[in-house]
Known about the structure:
Blueprint: E1 3-4, H1 13-25, E2 38-43, H2 49-60, E3 64-69, E4 77-78, E5 91-92, H3 93-102, E6 106-110, H4 118-122, H5 125-133, E7 138-140, H6 148-161, E8 168-173, H7 183-192, E9 198-202, H8 211-214, E10 218-219, H9 223-227, E11 232-236, H10 260-263, E12 270-272, H11 285-288, H12 295-317
Parallel strand pairs: 1-7, 2-3, 2-6, 4-5, 6-7, 8-9, 8-11, 9-10, 11-12
The chain binds N-acetyl-L-norvaline (AN0) and phosphoric acid mono(formamide)ester (CP).
Amino acid sequence: xxxxxxxxxxxxxxxxxxxxxxxxxxxxAYKSLGENKTLLMVFFNSSLRTRLSTQxxxxxxxxxxxxxxxxxxxxxxxxxxxxxxxxxKSEHILEAIPVMGSYCxxxxxxxxxxxxxxxxxxxxxxxxxxxxxxxxxxxxxxxATGHPLQAFADLITIEEYKRTSRPKVVMTWAPxxxxxxxxxPNSFADFMNEADVDFVITHPQGYELxxxxxxxxxxxxxxxxxxxxADFVYAKNWAAYADPNYGKILSKDMSWTITSQKMALxxxxxxxxxxxxxxxxxxxxxxxxxPQSIVIxxxxxxxxxxxxxxxxxxxxxx
Length: 318
Ligand code: AN0
Ligand code: CP
């Protein structure tokens, strides 16, 4: 595997989930695969889970791992070609990327949507420059339009907790004080559309996601109707995708918060969220603390999704 940016990069999804569950049974079985290989993780944005779980995954595979926080101690990077660099940016990304590539074997990149220019975001300008100019396999650690390590971990978690062969999975928008990217909901939809689940998306009018990710999923604007009979409730906030409101907050309607009253509409559903989560905006204290909340095992599976992807990349090096 040379790139990991979306569900298609995994090929046969069932096989990928089986491989992940095998890795989970013995996460040190491939300790020699990464010997003398270096994983570089580049962060343009903050992280708790991705940083730790991906580093842990690399270490499980015997790799050396390095982390660079672009905004803390590195030179400020210019990303546009043709700019006269007389401002505060000391280095161009077109030099920085091949230099970073020269020190490692595999690169993970976190570069969120900037909400300044929809085309730049949806063309994955930063991530694609890493793919093009680093000379190394590159995986997304949440880029502008996707968070495929999260969605893969989500699918592994659903596989572990499902009580029927084809569970109903409902992804619901919920309110949040800040504008958040569409990366997590995009990737979750990307994966659920390929998985053996009944997938429903619910959000207020105006929060429609890119049809490229929604594809054949059912979109139900009435949250209560959507939640009826759900086996998994996947909550997430995102800012508007559709023009002319790209990147804007259109609603903070607290009637969309996932509470125990909302969960009572479901088939005793499990509650999921990628974290970090704002309590009593996205989800009430009692729901996230309930036995039906699987946010911690979900986060723990980030180590497994990352390890599966890095293992496949290491195998492609040899
Ligand atoms: C980010 C987002 O919504 O994309 C990261 C989630 C994994 N969340 C925040 O910035 C709070
Ligand atoms: N879910 C997730 O990616 O969390 P972090 O932003 O803390 O890495």
